[in-house]
């Protein structure tokens, strides 16, 4: 009987907490951009640590308050493209890449170098196997596996 009184009193006096449910629904409905924001925050924090930069110093570079930088670095802020661009410039790091067909020559050469490091290739002029990572001009390469010129427009 004593236990029932206690349970009844607890039921009457307790406040039903529905805030957690609202927060869970919000996270579920917005998980896409929240995940991206979190990834950007992790990369930004890593870059700051490498540079020995504080949040206050980053705030000065971004021309915003330290409180806003703190919100950005928590990874739950809906970051604008402008803010991502400013963060990348301030930290001198790539935080977010938007793929497109109009790559710069530098981007193409990086892509080519990454592909060249994946498989060994044969030089047209020397006809010998080149070791991993050795720089070659993409026009000099005969793809070992394809037996033709590069499939990339480099």
From TrEMBL:
Q: Which CDD domains match?
A: HTH_XRE
* SMART domains reported for this sequence: HTH_XRE
Alphabetized Pfam families for the sequence: HTH_3 (PF01381)
Residues covered by the HTH cro/C1-type domain? 47-97
The protein here is known as: Helix-turn-helix transcriptional regulator
């Amino acid at each position: 009987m004593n236990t029932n009184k206690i349970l009844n009193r607890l039921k009457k006096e307790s406040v039903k907490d529905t805030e957690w449910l609202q927060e869970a629904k919000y996270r579920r409905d917005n998980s896409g951009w929240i995940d991206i924001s979190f990834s950007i925050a992790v990369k930004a924090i890593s870059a700051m640590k490498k540079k020995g930069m504080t949040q206050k110093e980053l705030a000065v570079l971004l021309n915003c308050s330290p409180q806003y930088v703190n919100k950005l670095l928590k990874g739950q802020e809906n970051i604008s493209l402008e803010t991502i661009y400013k963060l990348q410039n301030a930290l001198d790091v790539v935080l977010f890449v938007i793929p497109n067909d109009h790559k710069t020559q530098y981007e193409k050469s990086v892509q080519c170098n990454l592909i060249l490091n994946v498989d060994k290739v044969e030089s047209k002029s020397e006809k010998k196997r080149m070791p991993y990572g050795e720089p070659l001009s993409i026009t000099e390469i005969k793809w070992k596996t394809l037996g033709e010129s590069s499939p990339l427009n480099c």
